[in-house]
Write a structure and sequence with these properties.
Blueprint: H1 12-18, H2 29-34, H3 38-54, E1 58-65, E2 71-82, E3 88-97, H4 99-121, E4 125-129, E5 135-138, H5 149-152, H6 157-162, H7 172-179, E6 183-188, E7 194-203, E8 209-218, H8 220-242, E9 245-250, E10 256-259, H9 261-271, H10 290-301, E11 306-313, E12 316-326, E13 332-341, H11 343-387, H12 394-420, E14 429-432, H13 433-447, E15 452-458, E16 464-467, H14 469-485, E17 491-502, E18 516-525, H15 532-535, H16 555-565, E19 569-575, E20 579-587, E21 612-616, H17 620-631, E22 636-640, H18 643-648, E23 656-660, H19 668-678, E24 683-688, H20 696-702, E25 706-709, H21 714-725
Parallel strand pairs: 15-17, 21-22, 21-23, 23-24, 24-25
Antiparallel strand pairs: 1-2, 2-3, 4-5, 4-8, 6-7, 7-8, 9-10, 9-13, 11-12, 12-13, 14-16, 17-18, 18-20, 19-20
Helix pairs in contact: 11-12, 11-17, 12-16, 13-14, 14-16
């Protein structure tokens, strides 16, 4: 092209590249400039001008627009020639159509951008470097470890990522370059971060490693979750190991998948083998139980929960449970089998059953004792009154005395029934159990045959309990006499007193027995012992192993009742042909102040002074006997059958009311409240022979002036009456 005139000469190929037929137009610099894409014209003009100014060729890539509007890329090369005056004369240039190459480059660029965009979305860190450790690509997800891509591309990976001046000493890329094998490992970084490191060789066509890609994934959360799960499993295993329950997980093929320590201990003790996962559960099932085990297992695999209790051997009881295990899809994948030693529970249930049976018998016996006391009170009073007559024949007097003696023996028998039924009224006071045992042993030495050796062992100088000394003495005597009968050929009788303490870490020897300190008494003999069959009935009333006429069968029943009424516990350990030991636990006294013992009263009946007494008793014979007895001693007696009849009577002129506690329609405590409402100062004495859960002091607290126990003698009755009338206090 002539720079001065703008005339140009185009080759045929130039015409075709520009979209013209050769020779179809007159070429010129103006046309050549117009076909350049508007966005590239300034850049093209600048390149030409610079070539003119410097005299150096230009080399640019630009776009042209053909007449049909299509855009083509061309590679343009140009050079300026000068005339003799060194002025620019012509521009010699060439076009090369590079549209296809440009399109390929654009496609590659877009593809690379898409690839990098995708990698940038990956939450992992990806770095690609050459064999010299120069970074050729890195996404931005370095979880804070590196800077932006443009700042690290081309730098050494060890410097960009870790700040080292040379290859990292633990660099796995070096090993991959040498072996051409992939590498994968979980690595803990400084600071506690865990990563999944993968190093992958990128091979060229010749099989050599051209690039190395490091793929790093932050797995700290996963590692912590795994650690938390492992710790949770260890804690759960520790919990399972600390229980008394043996657990095993069994798959459908009866293989053991997991177990706890108690299960391993049971397997070692019962079968002498070590429990292992993968073994068949049938290896640890007794042959006699295998069929039932398989039946229960199959039921559990069908979705049922099975719980059975079995006596395994030698009196040991176990509870076996088969629980189905379901997956998230509710598919049954196995069975959780657990076994629990319930031998102690079975023993406790047996003890409770026996106690409930004895309580039921005791309640019945207490009711019978009430009726007997009414009868005996009437018999004793009616027998005593004629004895005051001086003109009785000797035979009549002997007969009446015999009636009284037999009545008192019957009263003792009733007292034993009341003791068993825990219905006797106790005279409770602080008692030194050590001193009481010494007194009892002194009496026993005079009554026990010499071929039985008696010994004592006191673990402390004194042991205070709150008890009725007479009843506890009766317990010791009954047990000692029972031991005597068990040693017809002689032997040893040993009585021990000690204090037993049970802390929160100890299991008391009896159910419902509270922890703390207890007084403990043991009575041991070297006699014949007691068979297991007899032990179940040992404390039942009227049960005896002695020959007819040798015992009533109430001795141990009375012991049991007295101990229970004192809020105590009693147990027995026995071996046939070796001996028996009875162990009694009694609560220690809270009030250590000893009270004086009350003395019984004897002598002549107290004479009346014409006082008026209202007697309320539903038993006609007893009511008549009381009226006759008191009337003979100068008391004026009126009677009523029950509380309603008494309240219909006038209370004016009454000095004293003597009332039964248990009567039809209205009991004595209800009657007392009504009497107190009508006559607040009226003295009221309670008569009772029935089951009571309170003592005499409780009756006095409720408002009674005093109380008397059936059966009673005329001396006892008149003494209580006289004391009440004279406003003096008496303790039973």
């Amino acid at each position: 092209m002539d720079i001065a005139t703008g005339d140009a000469i185009w080759s045929d190929e130039f015409f075709r590249i520009c979209g013209y037929e050769p020779g179809s137009i007159e070429p010129s610099s103006e046309i050549g400039f117009q076909i350049i894409h508007p966005d590239d014209r300034d850049r093209a003009a600048e390149a030409v001008n610079k070539a003119v100014e410097t005299g150096r060729p230009y080399d640019i890539e630009k776009r042209i627009v053909r007449p049909d509007g299509t855009v083509r890329w061309v590679h343009s090369i140009g050079e300026i020639t000068y005339d003799r005056q060194d002025q620019p004369k012509t521009l010699l240039g060439s076009f090369q159509d590079i549209t296809e190459r440009k399109q390929a480059e654009e496609a590659l660029r877009q593809s690379q951008e898409r690839f990098e965009d995708m990698l940038s979305l990956v939450p992992d860190m990806i770095s690609i470097h050459d064999p010299d450790m120069n970074i050729v690509y890195s996404n931005w997800n370095g979880f804070g470890a590196v800077a932006e891509e443009k700042r690290i591309t081309g730098t050494k990976c060890y410097n960009a990522y870790r700040g080292f001046d040379d290859v990292c000493p633990d660099c796995q890329a070096v090993r991959v370059l040498q072996t051409k094998e992939r590498f994968q490992e979980d690595v803990e970084l400084p600071g506690g971060t865990w990563v999944d490191l993968r190093v992958i060789p990128l091979l060229g066509r010749d099989g050599s490693v051209e690039l190395v890609m490091e793929w790093v994934r932050d797995i700290t959360k996963r590692k912590r979750a795994e650690e938390a799960r492992r710790e949770s499993e260890e804690r759960m295993q520790a919990v399972l190991d600390s229980t008394h329950h043996a657990f095993m997980l069994i798959d459908p093929s009866l293989k053991i998948k997991a177990f706890n320590q108690p299960a391993a201990t049971n397997a070692r003790h019962v079968f002498g083998e070590t429990l292992c996962n993968g073994q068949s559960i049938l290896n640890y099932v007794l042959p006699s139980h295998e069929d039932s085990f398989l039946e229960y297992f199959q039921q559990a695999m069908q979705g049922e929960t099975i719980i059975v209790e079995r006596e395994v051997q030698n009196g040991f009881w176990f509870s076996f449970a088969f629980n189905p295990i379901s997956s998230a899809e509710r598919e049954i994948t196995g069975v959780c089998f657990n076994s629990t030693d319930i031998t102690e529970r079975k023993q406790i249930e047996k003890q409770l059953t026996q106690q409930e049976r004895l309580a039921a018998v005791g309640q019945l016996a207490g009711g019978i004792a009430h009726d007997f006391n009414n009868l005996l009170a009437s018999i004793i009073l009616n027998a005593q009154m004629p004895l005051r007559q001086s003109d009785l024949t000797s035979s009549t007097r002997d007969a009446l005395n015999t009636v009284l003696e037999e009545s008192h023996r019957a009263a003792d028998l009733v007292q034993q029934i009341l003791d068993f039924s825990r219905s006797a009224i106790l005279d409770v006071a602080p008692v030194d159990l050590v001193a009481l045992v010494h007194k009892s042993v002194t009496l026993l030495r005079r009554t026990i045959p010499e071929h039985i050796r008696i010994s004592t062992e006191m673990g402390l100088p004194s042991c205070m309990i709150e008890a009725d000394a007479t009843r506890i003495h009766q317990v010791l005597m009954n047990l000692a006499l029972n031991a005597r009968d068990a040693m017809p050929q002689g032997g040893d009788l040993h009585i021990q007193v000690k204090q037993a303490s049970f802390t929160e870490h100890d299991a008391p020897p009896w159910p419902r027995m509270s922890r703390g300190s207890w007084a403990c008494v043991t009575v041991s003999d070297t006699g014949t012992g007691i068979t297991e069959e007899m032990q179940d009935h040992l404390f039942e009333p009227f049960f005896t192993t002695k020959d007819p006429g040798q015992g009533t069968g109430l001795g141990l029943a009375q012991v049991y009742g007295i101990v229970k009424q004192h809020q105590g516990f009693i147990g027995v350990d026995t071996v046939v042909a070796e001996g028996t030991t009875f162990t009694i636990y009694l609560p220690l006294a809270e009030n250590m102040e000893e009270l004086e013992e009350a003395s019984a009263w004897e002598g002549r009946p107290s004479q009346g002074q014409g006082e008026t007494i209202l007697v309320i008793e539903d038993s006609k014979p007893l009511r008549a006997a009381i009226k006759s007895g008191l009337g003979s001693l100068d008391y004026h007696v009126v009677t009523a059958i029950n509380g309603y009849e008494a309240l219909e009577m006038s209370l004016e002129g009454l000095d004293l009311v003597l009332t039964d506690m248990v009567m039809p329609k209205m009991n004595g405590d209800v009657l007392l409240r009504e009497l107190r409402r009508q006559a607040p100062q009226l003295k009221v004495i309670a008569m009772t022979g029935h089951v009571l859960d309170i003592d005499v002091e409780d009756l006095k607290t409720d408002g009674f002036t005093d109380a008397i126990l059936k059966p009673f003698s005329i001396q006892e009755l008149t003494s209580v009456v006289r004391n009440a009338l004279d406003d003096t206090a008496r303790r039973l």
